[in-house]
Amino acid sequence: MSKAVTMDELLEANSDLERVKTGDITDGKISSVKKNEIWVDLGPQGMGLVSKREMGYGQKFNVGDEVSVSVIEAELDEGYSLLSLKRVSKDKGWDELEKVLADKAIVEVVPYDANRGGLLVESEGIRGFLPVSQLAAGHYPRVTGADKDEILTKLNALINKSIKVRILDLSRKENKLIFSEKEAVKDNMQESFSKLNVGDIVSGEITGVIDFGAFVNVDGIEGLIHISEISWERVEDPKKHLKVGQKVQAKIIAIDKDRLSLSLKQMQEDPWLSEVKKFKVGTSAEGKVTRITPFGAFIQLSPAVEALVHVSEMSKEDSVNPEEIFRLNEKKKFKIIDIDEQSRKIALSLKDA
């Protein structure tokens, strides 16, 4: 028959067991799960309590689960330890993210909220930020001017959508985690750029229409159609010609470091070359005033042909103010005094008309 073990003998046998210390990370088994607390059995090291604020976000725990915990208070007056599940998870998250940064690896994040500066995301249990400036062409919110409400509307559309990113900046001490979609697509973009040449025809989608032109997403590469390249005719407002979401085919006219310069008008034959044949030097022509400047006035002779009346050809008087002679959109008759097809210029005279 075995001898009964007394309490004094148990205490003596366990006297050399090292108690947990504040800051330690140790293992245990969940013995109780309630709405606002979790009890963890630490074995010979006693019991520990995890309060609601230290449980973490979005995790589910069950009785019997083996967990790692961080010791906040080694021993309270009541005899148990105060523990944290969140801190261990966070530390592991930072460790994993530091490896991701070192490896320059691409990860996927799903934005859970947005503000005017960018998207709020979470990775490995750590909350981070994806700034607007670090979004790739396909997601960048192109808006007219600086309409912050419109920017926020477009960013909200990205909530709950998976985005591939790289870590741009990380600081565990400062609790800073910044992501970049641009960095994640950079390698693919460089490969795509290497396959493109000036003169190529590409397909894309209009992502933004602004005062000076339109932005186009060409397989993740950003392109710009300048207002002067939208049409052979004069374009005053790009929004009357192009709309966001519109599919277009355009010609590459220049390749910059990270952007394409595109042309829509060069997809068609220049109508100027055919329309200019209607006009001859020495003959008269009627046109509409489209612009007035100190040095002269621009006159539209046909949809594609514009000419200039220099200030010296407006009147036989020495001093002339173009704004006193012309009004916008009025029509007048002129004499054609020169046609330079190579430079695409036509000179008119009002005084000799």
How many DSSP helices? Answer: 6
Largest sheet: 5 strands, mixed, barrel
> What would you call the shape?
rod-shaped
| Reported CATH architecture of the largest domain | Beta Barrel
From the N-terminal CA to the C-terminal CA, the straight-line distance is: 133 Å
What Rg do the Cα atoms give?
Answer: 36 Å
Number of strands: 21
Class by helix and strand content? alpha+beta
CATH fold topology of the largest domain: OB fold (Dihydrolipoamide Acetyltransferase, E2P)
SSE string, helix = H, strand = E? HEEEEEHEEEEHEEHEEEEEHEEEHEE
Q: Whole-number average pLDDT?
A: 87
The number of distinct structural domains comes to 4
Oligomeric status of the shown chains? single chain
Percent of residues in helical segments? Answer: 10-25%
| Strand arrangement, major sheet | 1-2-3-5-4
What would you give as the CATH superfamily of the largest domain?
A: Nucleic acid-binding proteins
Q: DSSP strand (E) fraction?
A: 35-45%
- CATH class division of the largest domain: Mainly Beta
Which spans have pLDDT < 50 for at least 5 consecutive residues? 13-17
Please tell me about this protein's structure:
With 353 residues, the protein is of the alpha+beta class. The chain has 4 domains: 22-84, OB fold (Dihydrolipoamide Acetyltransferase, E2P); 93-185, Nucleic acid-binding proteins (OB fold (Dihydrolipoamide Acetyltransferase, E2P), Beta Barrel); 197-267, Nucleic acid-binding proteins (OB fold (Dihydrolipoamide Acetyltransferase, E2P)); 275-349, Beta Barrel (OB fold (Dihydrolipoamide Acetyltransferase, E2P)). The protein is 16% helix and 38% strand. It contains 6 helices and 21 strands. The protein has helices spanning 7-13, 86-103, 148-156, 181-194, 271-275, 322-325, and strands at residues 25-33, 37-41, 47-51, 66-73, 81-84, 107-109, 113-115, 118-123, 126-131, 163-171, 176-180, 201-210, 213-218, 221-226, 247-255, 259-263, 284-293, 296-300, 306-310, 331-340, 345-349. It has a 5-stranded mixed β-barrel. A 5-stranded mixed beta barrel has the order 12-13-14-16-15. Mean pLDDT is 87; it is low at 13-17.
